[in-house]
From TrEMBL:
It is found in: Cell membrane. Belongs to the RLP family. The chain crosses the membrane at residues 557-580. InterPro entries: Leu-rich_rpt. It is a single-pass type I membrane protein. One of its GO terms (cellular component) is plasma membrane. PANTHER family: RECEPTOR LIKE PROTEIN 30-LIKE, RECEPTOR-LIKE PROTEIN 12 ISOFORM X1. It comes from the Eukaryota. This is Receptor-like protein 12. It holds the Pfam family LRR_8. Keywords: Cell membrane, Glycoprotein, Leucine-rich repeat, Membrane, Receptor, Repeat, Transmembrane, Transmembrane helix. It comes from Populus tomentosa (Chinese white poplar).
Length: 607
């Protein structure tokens, strides 16, 4: 049984032990309670509740704790407005209110907390405000104000905070340029300005900060050119410039500037030409994003030897790569992550590739999200996930987007509604029968198996897909009759079984009354409406067409493409590799993923 502390018990500790100097119950996630009213005369110096399940609001009487030096309620469940009396605690040197649901304005009285060295208010629901209130807190070494709805320019008066080692202003509404004084903050270890609206060039002085370990400038409007050779910080382990209007230039000689790099995010940075030689010799790589550039040619052999024991994320999507310099049977990175069976998968699009072999029966059995929609999803398919690494917390936040052929029309989805489920395996070289297990995917909205070499009968179990709106089995070698049970699919708008070897009468009733003869073309053995050929007089027992009839394959594949994906709920993406059958593609599913989402934002934050 998990230990729990009742609110009354926890409050008693705080209310009646006024002689306490230190009260620390941090990191007890099952400990519940709330803060009592505090009286004058308390000698409490440390009140540390972080990582508990304490909740409710902070009492106004917290201003009575005149001896308090450290107050830590991070990662709790506190809410409401922060009492202005907290600004009366002029002896405070450590204040952490992060990761709660505090609302309202950050109190203006915080300007009185002149002894603060550590301040974190990150990830709350504050109303918008500027950063000018920070200017007088000149003893600060740590500032965590990411996700605080801060707006406006970064005040020049913050240059007075000369002791700063950590400045995290990620995910706000900050505008303007990076102020020149920031290049003088020689003690900075972490600088986070990502996901704001900052613009202009990035001064080289930022890249010369001698102690800088983490630099996050992603998701802004920065422009100009960044030369990796200007990086002078030999301590840099995380370098993130993705999703700006920058052009990054680097060459083989710049590898020394990145000698300790672990996190490298350069998506959409106009990298062009051959594979980046500045990565040569980088043996500490853990997280690499190079998607959305113009990198061309082969992935070199030397890159396959980097980070074999450390790399856990690799993104090369949206480039002009043509393959591997030296063929590989198994990708060498042992720790690549987000080994899943894709149980929450709702959309699979592997169309237009060269997959061989039978349809992946075992995967159909594992795709349970296509059997019952997860009701906890938002209105649109989104990811807001995180996981802990030894030194970092990785967060991924994006709306899924995709382009898919739906009901015969190529459709671009900027956002994907939560109920959409679809399988498109068309235009491959799958063979064998259609598994009965597809009939278990009862939430399926669209199924496209066209342009393959499928044989055998259409399984009656497809009639279990009561919500199915589109079913395309055309351009295969399917035989036998169309199951009469398919007439039960009353939502079916598009149905196509043309160019097969089907025979017998076409089912009647419901949606089948709406399909024209193009849905059934090039099946010489079929009869009945809407075809002109009537059934009866033994016409359904006509001999099957010759083997080469209906066997024309409309696409000649010279591609060498395989498709893989992201395990939280969607598989869409591509890497260049070798044409392979279904047996070979299994190792790829287990060892490599590429996220594809137009609004993808993958971020890492230092603990």
């Amino acid at each position: 049984m998990q230990p729990r502390c009742q609110a009354e018990e926890a409050n008693a500790l705080l209310q009646f032990k006024e002689s306490l100097v230190i009260h620390s119950i941090r990191y007890n996630p099952y400990l519940t309670g709330y803060l009592p009213e505090f009286h004058w005369g308390s000698h409490l110096e440390l009140l540390l509740l972080a990582g508990t399940s304490f909740s409710s609001q902070l009492p106004e009487s917290i201003g009575n704790l005149k001896s308090l030096k450290e107050f830590d309620v991070a990662n709790c469940y506190f809410s409401g407005v922060i009492p202005s009396s907290l600004g009366n605690l002029t002896t405070l040197n450590y204040l952490d209110l992060s990761h709660n649901t505090f609302s309202g304005k950050i109190p203006s009285t915080f300007v009185n907390l002149l002894q603060l060295t550590y301040l974190s208010l990150s990830s709350n629901n504050f109303s918008s405000g500027t950063l000018h209130w920070l200017c007088n807190l000149t003893k600060l070494t740590f500032v965590g104000l990411n996700r605080t709805n801060s707006y406006g320019e970064i005040p020049s008066c913050l240059g007075n905070l000369t002791q700063l080692t950590h400045l995290n202003l990620n995910v706000n509404e900050l505008t303007g340029q990076i102020p020149s004084w920031m290049g003088n903050q020689t003690k900075l270890i972490l600088l986070g300005l990502g996901d704001n609206k900052l613009h202009g060039p990035i001064s080289d002085s930022i890249f010369r900060l001698p102690n800088l370990e983490t630099l996050n400038l992603v998701g802004n409007l920065f422009s100009g050119t960044v030369e990796l050779g200007h990086l002078k910080s030999r301590s840099l382990v995380s370098f993130q410039l993705s999703d700006n209007n920058l052009s990054v230039i680097g060459n083989h000689n710049d590898s020394a500037a990145l000698q300790k790099i672990q996190i490298l995010s350069l998506s959409g940075c106009n990298l062009s030409g051959e594979f980046p030689s500045f990565l040569h010799g980088q043996n500490h790589l853990e997280f690499v994003e190079l998607g959305g550039n113009k990198i061309e040619g082969h992935i070199p052999t030397w890159f396959m030897n980097l980070g074999t024991e450390t790399l856990w994320n690799l993104d090369l999507r949206g480039n002009l790569l043509t393959g591997f310099e030296q063929s590989v049977d198994i990708l060498p990175w042992n720790n690549l992550r987000s080994d899943f069976e894709f149980q929450r998968l709702q959309i699979v699009d592997l169309s237009g590739n060269c997959f061989l072999g039978k349809l992946p029966l075992e995967y159909f059995r594992n795709w349970t999200a296509m059997k019952t929609i997860y009701k906890e999803h938002p209105l649109y398919m989104q990811v807001d996930a995180s996981f802990q690494l030894p030194r970092y917390v990785m967060t991924s936040q994006f709306d899924y987007s995709m382009t898919m052929t739906n009901k015969g029309v190529v459709t671009k989805y900027e956002k994907i509604q939560e109920f959409l489920t679809a399988i498109d395996l068309s235009s491959n070289r799958f063979e064998g029968g259609i598994p009965d297990a597809l009939g278990d995917l009862k939430e399926l909205y669209s199924l496209n198996l066209s342009n393959n070499f499928l044989t055998g009968r259409i399984p009656p179990s497809l009639s279990n897909l009561k919500g199915l709106e589109a079913l395309d089995l055309s351009q295969n070698k399917l035989s036998g009759e169309i199951p009469i049970q398919l007439a039960q699919l009353t939502f079916l708008e598009v149905f196509n079984v043309s160019h097969n070897l089907l025979s017998g009468p076409i089912p009647r009733g419901n949606q089948f009354e709406t399909f024209d003869n193009t849905s059934f073309d090039a099946n010489p053995g079929l009869c009945g409406k809407p075809l002109s050929k009537k059934c009866g007089n033994g016409e359904d027992s006509l001999p099957a067409p010759k083997e080469d009839e209906g066997s024309g394959y409309p696409l000649e594949f010279g591609w060498k493409v395989v498709v893989i994906g992201y395990a939280t709920g969607l598989v869409i993406g591509a890497i260049l590799g070798c044409a392979m059958n279904t047996r070979n593609y299994e190792w790829l599913v287990k060892n490599y993923f590429v996220n594809k989402g137009q609004n993808l934002k993958t971020r890492l934050c230092r603990n």
